[in-house]
Amino acid sequence: MKKKAKWKVIGSSLLGFVVVAAAALWFEYRQLQPKNHFQSVPVVSTVKKASDENSKPKSTVSAPAFNILIMGSDARPGQKIGHSDTMMLMHVDLGENQINAVSIPRDTRVHLNGYGYTKLTSVQYILQADKGPKQGIEEAVNAISEFTGVPINYYVETNFEGLKSMIDTLGGIQMNVPTTEKIGNKVIDPGRYFFNGDTVLALARERHSLANGDYGRQQMQLEALKGIAKEALSPGNIPKLPSLVNSVSKYMIATNMSTSDMVSLGLAAKDIDPNKQLHYEQHTGVGKTMYDDILQNNNSQIVIDPEQLKTTINKYFES
């Protein structure tokens, strides 16, 4: 083969490789687009809303909507089990570019089949201790689904170190502090600040110095998530989403979301203005001292009115 012809063949082969690679990347990019990626979603919990009984199957061309349970655990690095310290249900509607989020207090009184009444924060620990980390967390997700009446498609649980890791990977975040908070000897007044991971972690954990206790902490945690989302989804950081997801993987305690699921969810979130298209509801109840069947003592619990909970869920989780 002549030298010129040889280089022509090599050049054609390289061009073909580039075209195939570009086509593969374009296909992957299209598949990661939220309205394509989330056409089929898993269902972790077995609960089924009554309103779904007579509903018709959704068209495959309609924009997907799904529910995510986000949990924060008090488990330290290396520990296999822990208590659920934060529980937030999110309804993501890709058709409306809308996210509805509802926080459930950690001390909510719930009935756990086969065990009795206890706090919601203890459910995960009990089930993981009895059934092992993976089966325990899946049954804990199902217990939360049964309590709220929300079918859960995805769950993500991380510890607070994962929150710190993500913020440090971003180089810090802008965050709104809605109420006065005391961290050690330092008082932080309401306002907007630029914080590193250590400070956000301290703010997200603190509840004792807040006038409204755990409800104030829930609000602070939401502000942290909004700050992370805004920074992570800024134009310069969009290409870093896969590495950002991987950066917190070692702090991820449990999830049924793949890396591509998380990246696609991030792409969905970039089109959502957290100040206009994120509705957040704190579900409250009445604090009472009641007997805990599992811990076998009286402790402070929050009793939620089931009708009030049902009204909230029907309002924000109907798709």
Characterise this structure:
With 319 residues, the chain is an alpha+beta fold. 41% of the residues lie in helices and 24% in strands. The chain contains 10 helices and 14 strands. The protein has helices spanning 3-32, 34-37, 120-131, 133-148, 160-170, 197-205, 213-232, 241-247, 259-269, 306-316, and strands spanning 65-73, 84-93, 98-103, 109-112, 116-119, 154-159, 173-177, 181-183, 186-188, 191-195, 252-255, 278-282, 286-292, 297-303. It has a 6-stranded mixed beta sheet with strand order 11-6-1-2-3-12, sandwiched between helices. A two-stranded antiparallel sheet has the order 4-5. Strands 7-10 form a two-stranded antiparallel ribbon. A hairpin with a 2-residue loop joins β8 (181-183) and β9. The model is unreliable at 6-29 and 50-61 (pLDDT under 50).
